[in-house]
Amino acid sequence: MSAEVISIPRAALHDQVGHRLRQMLVEGRIAPGAKLNERTLCEALQVSRTPLREAIKTLAAEGLVELLPNRGAIAVQLNETDVIHTFEVMAGLEAQSGELAAQRITDSELAEIKAMHFEMLAAWTRRDLPAYYHLNARIHAAINAAAKNPVLTDTYARVNARLQALRFRSNQDEKKWRHAVEEHEGMIAALQARDPVAMRQVLSAHLANKLSTVLAQLRQQAHGARA
Questions:
Q1: Would you state the pLDDT for residue 3?
Q2: What is the pTM (predicted TM-score) of this model?
């Protein structure tokens, strides 16, 4: 396990460590169910154990890490039932965010989302999945922010944290990835038209397709493990 990092500034150290550790979890450099080896991570991230442990606590609160008595921390691994239940909630949150955003978004917010969308398309053209996913997540967060409902935003952030790694891996299927990009085109069109019904529909379909892809990947992994 390695991470391409530079020396971390002392200010807000555990936030910086948390950001990099979050990337490692989401991008699968730390596998679901794997124990977080503090010594190895300290060496990879070039930090002491204190900021690392603070970062791990933060990620545990986000739902990316599970703290086990006498066993330390492990990367969260959702089973199929967990995934279905979480995606059910997330689909509702995404749809509600989209519907409200279509009604409340400002011209400047829309312009920023469109700019990120074009950057995301460039990353997709390069097949740069980490850059694509980073922009993709920012777009979804910006749509949620445009809904201007702080309760919805707080709930969205907590539930979405559990699914980040799965949403990242869902784009590793080329055909599914292309379809997800097309769905994002639909989101931009619905936002630009200020059409809440279309926005709800495209986001509901987007999450349903994500769930289908994630479940297929989980079942394929389970089958491979049994073989």
A1: 46
A2: 0.80
